[in-house]
Amino acid sequence: MADIELTIRELKDEIERLNGENKELRETVDWMHDLIWQMLKNRP
Question: How many CB atoms lie within 10 A of CB 19?
């Protein structure tokens, strides 16, 4: 039973880590998207 609880805890930790990484990646994509649009708007 303890092994199952440890595995569940490890999986929850991994999900939390992946969610944090996903948030950072989404923020980066949003920043890149905004930058590209800004550059396009400022083109001569």
Answer: 10
- DSSP states along the chain: -HHHHHHHHHHHHHHHHHHHHHHHHHHHHHHHHHHHHHHHHT--
Backbone angles phi, psi at 36, to 5 degrees: -60, -45
Give the tens place of pLDDT for each residue, 14-29: 999 999 999 999 999 9
Tell me how far apart the alpha carbons of residues 2 and 7 are, in angstroms, rounded to a whole number.
9
Phi, psi of 12 (to 5 degrees): -65, -40
**Which residue carries 């999986």 as its tokens?**
11
Token pair in block for residue 24: 């950072």
